[in-house]
Amino acid sequence: MKRSYRSVALLLVVLMLNIIFTQYMVHQYFYENYTNTIIAAIINVLLFPAAFLIYKKGVNVNDQ
After folding, report:
1. Which sign does the torsion angle of CA 8, 9, 12, 18 carry?
2. Count of domains in the chain?
3. pTM of the model
């Protein structure tokens, strides 16, 4: 099951965004900016379905 480079690159971008927003969330929580913490958490939660869709699309392309 060979993967396309585009789907792997997009998954790497989503992973990097998850790392960035998680670090931002922890930083904002430490400095008691709870509104920004909630926003970063919501973005992290929204990135998961995006990564799942990219993964499923990459798998389906190579199965045909």
Report:
1. negative
2. 1
3. 0.84
